[in-house]
Amino acid sequence: MTAKNIIHDVTFLSKKSQAATKADLPNATDLRDTLMANQGRAAGLAANMIGVDKQIIAFFVGPLPVVMLNPIITSKSGLYTASEGCLSLTGERPAKRYREITVQYDNLNFEKQTQTFTDFTAEVIQHEIDHCHGILI
To answer: Does the keyword Hydrolase apply (predicted)?
Structure first.
């Protein structure tokens, strides 16, 4: 298990991440391991939070970590305002989120997947995808 340090550099975190490739699979593993090491503190992480400017996110569905490469939200509904925290930032801030989202992404075998998520899991995924685009709460 290779847990990495969490980055707090707002300049780095504000940069748009590059598309992930098969060469980035070790980074995906490091991200999953870092999420596992922060279980109880983090519901999800994006690769730029560990210093890697790639479009990779990891989050929990129940006790299980899920990793998505190159995630794209293809549909969304049910706009609301959430109050969110982030391991890279101090405090909580309001964020516009959707109760239901559909995400297209590559799995760890680089197979295209499409999945719908709701409620808290959807909120976490939106937060992490925002990280991939350099958007901070």
So the answer is: yes
Neighbours of 114 (CB within 10 A): 11
Q: From CA 106, how far away is CA 87, in angstroms rounded?
A: 25
pLDDT per position as a tens digit, 55-96: 999 999 989 999 999 999 999 999 999 999 999 999 999 999
Q: Is 120 exposed, middle or buried (0-12, 13-18, 19+ CB in 10 A)?
A: middle
- Catalytic, 92? Answer no
Domains, the chain, with CATH or none: 10-132 (3.90.45.10)
Reduced to 3 states, what is the DSSP secondary structure of residue 47? helix
Going by C-alpha positions, the residue among 77, 83, 73, 68 that lies closest to residue 35 is: 68
d(CA 36, CA 3): 8
